[in-house]
Amino acid sequence: MKTTIDQVAKHLGQEVTIGAWLANKRSSGKIAFLQLRDGTGFIQGVVVKAEVAEETFNLAKSITQETSLFVTGTVVEDTRSPFGYELQVKEIEVIHQAVDFPITPKEHGTEFLMDNRHLWLRSKKQHAIIKIRNEIIRATYQFFSENGYIKVDPPILTGSAAEGTTELFHTQYFEEEAYLSQSGQLYMEAAAMAFGKVFSFGPTFRAEKSKTRRHLIEFWMIEPEMAFMDHEESLQVQENYVSYLAQSVLTNCQLELKTLERDVTKLEKIKAPFPRITYDKAIDLLKEKGFDDIEWGEDFGSPHETAIAESFDQPVFITHYPADIKAFYMKPDPDRPEVVLCADLIAPEGYGEVIGGSQRIDDLELMKKRYEEHQLTSDAYKWYLELRQYGSVPHSGFGLGLERTVAWLSGVEHVRETIPFPRLLNRLYP
Ligand code: 4AD
Ligand code: MG
């Protein structure tokens, strides 16, 4: 019977045929161990010389890496492997022979692997990371759907920038100029006024000249937006959502976490509520930690975020940043208008900011004032202003960066490994 590796548990003791590629191989005079992968998983095929036809054993010994095969054998339990099963091979049929696959089991440099990303994706580690990415996406849909949110898709081609105009990708839109979306937020605010609780999940683009382990040029963002919710209520959604993601990965990606040698005790600690610290307190903390130069009013860089995160073993919210270093749409604190009702969620272990969010300005006059300060008077933003004109309500939302979340939960160093085909500064291929 034809099956896939993820289904072999259902066929214990039976003979099955699996379409697979040869990931790796070891052999001696009497036995060959084939590491097989079919996309759904990895399994070891054992070929015993005494139990198969001579030509089958000779074939097993000579198959080259990444050759595609139909392998027939009996599923048996194997307590030594993390997967728990192996295949006692009876027959092997070569579908297509691969010659000189460039990524051998030895160590390769990052640039070489990135040039071969289309092939590197087949490796066990990359497979595990992308499976965890998939689980985070699945859990996202489940979390928001169970909590009464509907998914709304904002446009990718836009005329209105959400996060400042310096990092935009420009493109020609017939006679007009357009941009690739940096964030769907402005559209999600319109959607929240129509559907109450909404979320989006889509690609976003930033022409940032940053070459760090946290920055991609094209990354995917989950952006919930909630009508009638204030800043504090939004923080509760965020901590519940992030806890849910961590617990889903722990439950559903045990094999992948093992493959990545992730310290799961770190993930087990990710449980709402998360600690909160104001920007003011964060400045004090940084000064205590020896960052003597940092002044109130300055934005935090990666070293600052990492230093703050080190004081907590959970993700931490930094709240109430100065209005001047945050986006035009954030609502000022009524008690202290120089700061805004916002928070960045900083992940532990140096993974940095995974969420940026805020309560939004709901007052028409104040929003008009912000437009003037930010020179946003053009037609492109007229529609956004109108959301404050017709039944304006308190509302809040946030954006979670998928790749940074995948990097953090998987424990991989750099975001380039958390998206199938990363777009980085100086890298558009493959
Ligand atoms: O903090 P940001 O810029 O917030 C927004 O775009 C808001 N409009 C979201 C909202 O309220 N709806 O970005 C949100 C998150 C960051 O916390 C980070 O995780 C991720 O997006 N992010 C990046 N991830 C990878 N590469 C980049 N260049 C990123 N820039 C932001
Ligand atoms: Mg941010």
How many H/I helical runs?
Answer: 13
Number of strands: 19
CATH topology description of the largest domain: BirA Bifunctional Protein, domain 2
The hetero molecules present are: 4-amino-1,4-dioxobutan-2-aminium adenosine-5'-monophosphate, magnesium ion
Identify the CATH class of the largest domain.
Answer: Alpha Beta
Quaternary: single chain
Mean pLDDT: 96
Largest sheet: 8 strands, mixed
Integer-rounded radius of gyration: 26 Å
User: Span from first to last CA?
Assistant: 37 Å
How many domains make up the 3D coordinates? 2
| Helix content estimate | 25-40%
The CATH fourth-level homologous superfamily of the largest domain: Bira Bifunctional Protein, Domain 2
Shape: elongated
Sheet-strand content, in percent, reads 25-35%
Low-confidence stretches: none
Strands in their spatial order, largest beta sheet:
7-11-12-19-18-17-14-13
Q: Could you say which structural class the secondary elements and strand pairing correspond to? A: alpha+beta
CATH architecture heading of the largest domain: 2-Layer Sandwich
Please, could you describe this protein's structure?
- With 430 residues, the protein is of the alpha+beta class.
- The protein has two domains: 2-96, Beta Barrel (OB fold (Dihydrolipoamide Acetyltransferase, E2P)); 117-417, Bira Bifunctional Protein, Domain 2 (BirA Bifunctional Protein, domain 2, 2-Layer Sandwich).
- Helices cover 30% and strands 27% of the residues.
- It contains 13 helices and 19 strands.
- Strands 7-11-12-19-18-17-14-13 form an eight-stranded mixed sheet.
- The longest helix has 23 residues, at 124-146.
- The chain is elongated.
